[in-house]
Structure formats: C-alpha cells, structure tokens
Design brief:
This protein is an alpha/beta fold. The protein has one domain: Rossmann fold (3-Layer(aba) Sandwich), CATH 3.40.50. The chain contains 9 helices and 7 strands. It has a 7-stranded parallel sheet with strand order 3-2-1-4-5-6-7, with helices on both faces. Strand 4, helix 4 and strand 5 form a beta-alpha-beta unit. It is globular, with a radius of gyration of 18 Å. The N and C termini lie far apart (about 45 Å). Bound molecules: nicotinamide-adenine-dinucleotide (NAD).
Length: about 260
Amino acid sequence: MNGLMNGKRGLIMGVANNHSIAWGIAQALAAQGAELAFTYQGEALGKRVKPLAAELKSDLVVPCDVEDIASVDSAIAVIKEKWGKLDFIVHAIGFSDKNELKGLYADTSRDNFSRTMVISCFSFTEIAKRAAELMTDGGTMLTLTYGGSVRVMPNYNVMGVAKAALEASVRYLAADYGARGIRVNAISAGPIRTLAGAGISDARAMLSWQQKNSPMRRTVTIEDVGNSALYLLSGLSRGVTGEIHYVDSGYNITSMPALDTLRT
Ligand code: NAD
C-alpha cells in the first residue's frame, strides 16, 4: 500500500540521531507521504536532527526541552503558526539518571523519581493536551514504552515505574479524546541499541537475552517499530485506541527462558 499518510502532517519528538526509535518511525511515515516536523533537545542534538529532517524533506525543526513547559508551548506555537492544524504526534522521549538505572529500585532518589516522571511520563500528557487543540479533524498520538512497566527487568528501576504511569496515561488520554476522533496508543518496544538504551546498566546482556529467548529469536529494529507505528498512526488502525502494542519479537508472552538456551 502506498500513500497511507498522504496529506497528513505530524510532529516527531525524540530524534537524537539515526539510531533513535523516533527516526525509524519518521522514515516509515515519510515513505508513506507524511509531512513531518521535528523537535530536538538542545543545540548539540539540533545539529544532528536538522540534516536528518532534511533527508525527509522537512525544514520545520524546533527546539523543545520538555522539562521546561515554556519550551513545549513555544514549539507547539511554531507548529500552530506554520500549519494551523496537526494530524499526529510521536512522543519518543525518556530520561532518568543513569546512576539510578542500576542497583536497587528502592534506592531511587526523590529528585530523580520526580525528574524521570516529568520527562518520561507527564510530558506526554502536557504535549497531548496542546496537540489535541490542533487536531481539529481528529488525529493520532503515539508514545513509546517498555515491558519493564509490567514486569521487573533488571536495572530498569524507576523507568519501569514511569512507563507504568505512561501506559495508564495512554488509556486515560484515549478516553479523554476518543469522542473527538483522536486516538492515543503506545508501542512497547523490545530492547534496541540507542543512546537512551545505553544508559541502562547491562544493556548488552538484555539485548542478548532477548535475542536468545524471544519466540522469534531476534531483537527488534527501529524499522520494525517504524512499521508498527505507521499502522497505529494511520487509518489502518482506525478502530484502535488506548492500546499498548508490543513490538518485541513476542518476548512479553514468554514465562521462562527458551528450552534450547537452557540446554546449552
Ligand atoms: P534516544 O536516546 O534515541 O531517544 C530519547 C530521546 O529523548 C532523545 O531524543 C532525547 O533528546 C529525548 N529527551 C530526553 N530528555 C528530554 C527532554 N528533557 N526534553 C526533550 N527531549 C528529551 O533513545 P530511544 O531508545 O530511541 O528512546 C525513545 C523512546 O523509546 C524512549 O521513551 C524510550 O524509553 C523508549 N524505549 C526505548 C527502548 C530501547 O531499548 N531503546 C525500548 C522501549 C522503549
């Protein structure tokens, strides 16, 4: 199918480089005709994001640090001024102090708990509220989560708690906006080697475990996530909202290590 996103305009938040999940999503959307705008966090990342955006024929690239609500407001104001309306948003933003992405969850500090929650969870709600105002003909919203929200994953700690809250936010926002024709979903991706992923202690071991023990015996790529995002952001999923859609080679359905790995 071609042109699934023809005539649709959307904001991609969370590209840091060409390994970012948001970049995989942006490529899949652009290939189907979407017109994209991008945000970046800080000038250093801006230097990487602008040429990537240009590859997808986008020159609407604005700074946005979600810790600062004025920065969110001004990014949304630029979109409003340039486009007037919005059809979709992708929120692929997460952060926690890497010193707390190891050891005991119980040792999480109050400051990092709050910061992790604001950046990785509440920012989606704040952005959704503002984006919904621009989705005058309905729209779609997507965020990124991880299975550490529902099951304990080593070292994921406070990020798991923030992702659990983010997933609950998806359901509440879907209920808030459903009657306005705005759908809200999340993709729960398996581990992928990215900047954020590298902040989690023993990330390499997690990737190897997933590769050996998921039903498909492989890790997922940003292209895998991009294609599923295309489904959730396009009319293909028009009856779907409030869902947490796993793109993890089936790892979430397993209850024990694969027998072949136990035997070797
Ligand atoms: P990434 O490092 O490429 O992207 C993370 C993005 O968050 C970066 O662009 C960074 O600039 C942005 N960000 C962090 N703090 C911010 C702030 N204060 N304001 C604005 N932006 C901020 O890594 P990624 O793995 O592509 O992460 C994207 C999303 O996917 C995150 O929510 C992450 O938790 C989630 N996720 C990642 C994996 C994985 O294994 N990599 C798995 C499941 C879910």
